[in-house]
From TrEMBL:
Molecular function, one GO term: transferase activity
Pfam families: Acetyltransf_3
Native source species: Actinomycetospora flava
Catalytic EC class: transferase
Name by which UniProt lists this protein: GNAT family protein
Length: 220
């Protein structure tokens, strides 16, 4: 089946499949299995996302590769496929450029989060890092969160040593809120941005479509 038709059928059941965020040739869409398999290939590749030995920067991802890594990623991504509700919603979005899946970004609201708070996380294939795409993707996620979804605050966390992720947060207007040390000894730096602070960094010309169905689901 054509990917757009498949996404339309999925959107009738899971409104996150109707969301589309676009900016200058980069498109964020809820991934079908075809895109998840492309992403699994990146995850499985040794050093596909972070340099060998730096997996600790991914906060909880084990240092694996090949088939176990691909399966772990797919099973994690499939578990995120659930009907959104006011109490909890998760929107994984494939980062697509020229029809290729280059990474994954997730916008979510978890059960314990205060009303109006969204979480973001993302990764890009290593070959695509360091040319501004990560900053654009974060700002695209925030456009969805603070625009049609009317969130008031977005939060994120990065390992203390993850300079790129922390720089993206600063560039998007986040401020550090607190630090926590995980069981593995990695220091997590938590940061938050308000809608007002994001507005000063907002990208022009981000196009968000299909938010009505999703908004209805998380408000019901
Ligand atoms: C984190 C990530 C999404 C950022 O995306 P990116 O496209 O590499 O980042 P950008 O090119 O937009 O750069 C953002 C900033 O980080 C800086 N930066 C990029 N790579 C860097 C590095 N390795 N060390 C230090 N700074 C770096 C850039 O100079 C830029 O700084 P500026 O805003 O002051 O100019 C991407 O690097 C990635 O996927 N990393 C691996 C997965 C990961 O760590 N995800 C986050 C888990 S919490």
């Amino acid at each position: 089946m054509d990917a757009d038709l498949l996404r339309a059928d999925l959107a009738a059941l899971y409104p996150q499949y109707g969301l589309r965020v676009a900016h200058r040739g980069t498109v964020l869409l809820a991934p079908t299995d075809e895109e998840l398999l492309e992403l699994a290939e990146i995850v499985a590749e040794p050093g596909g996302i972070v340099a060998p030995g730096r997996a600790g920067e991914l906060l909880g991802w084990p240092e694996d590769e090949g088939v176990p890594a691909a399966r772990r990623f797919l099973e994690w991504a499939w578990r995120l496929r659930e009907a959104p509700s006011a109490a909890r919603w998760r929107v994984p979005l494939a980062v697509l450029d020229g029809g290729r899946a280059l990474g994954l970004a997730v916008l979510a609201h978890e059960i314990d989060d205060p009303a109006g708070t969204a979480r973001t996380s993302s990764w890009l294939a290593r070959a695509e890092q360091g040319r501004g795409l990560g900053t654009r993707v974060r700002l695209m996620l925030l456009e969805l969160a603070f625009g049609p979804l009317a969130m008031t605050r977005a939060v994120t966390a990065a390992a203390e040593g993850n300079a790129a992720s922390r720089r993206v947060s600063v560039a998007c207007g986040y401020r550090e809120t607190h630090r926590e040390t995980g069981g593995d000894g990695v220091v997590e730096v938590h940061a938050a941005v308000t809608a007002a602070a994001w507005r000063k960094k907002r990208l022009r010309d981000v196009d968000v479509e299909g938010a009505d169905g999703f908004l209805a689901a998380i408000r019901s």
